[in-house]
Amino acid sequence: MTRQDPQKAAAWVLEMPPGESQDYAYGNLVDAWSRYDLAGAQRWIAHFEPGRGRQLATEAFIRSNAVRAGDRAWDLANQSSDSDRLLAMQSLVMEGWAQQDPAAAREALKALDRVPDEVQKQFDKSLEVRNAWQELFSDP
Prior knowledge:
Shape: globular
Number of domains: 2
Largest sheet: none
Number of helices: 8
Order of helices and strands: HHHHHHHH
């Protein structure tokens, strides 16, 4: 349903009673939608009022897209007004983005006024993992 009519799928998720099933549906919807229409899924999330629905949709978007669209995931993560959620989402983005495109991820960190220790540590850890994998699979 998401691919044929994402707005209808979104309306269905919003009509569900709050709880575990709805939480799961948010994640599935955003994951499926963003695979074929990244910008559309991001626009849908942007229209949410702050609250649980927006938080769930944002986190699903970041989990699904940190590697392949780190810049968009980073932008969305940085819209959080909750400082604890902001740190968690920034760290989640860095986990994927630093492995895929470390130069772009590094530039995003440089653009911050102050890089939180937790986010910098996640970037460094992800970069170490990336380098270890490259070393392991590189030709001698």
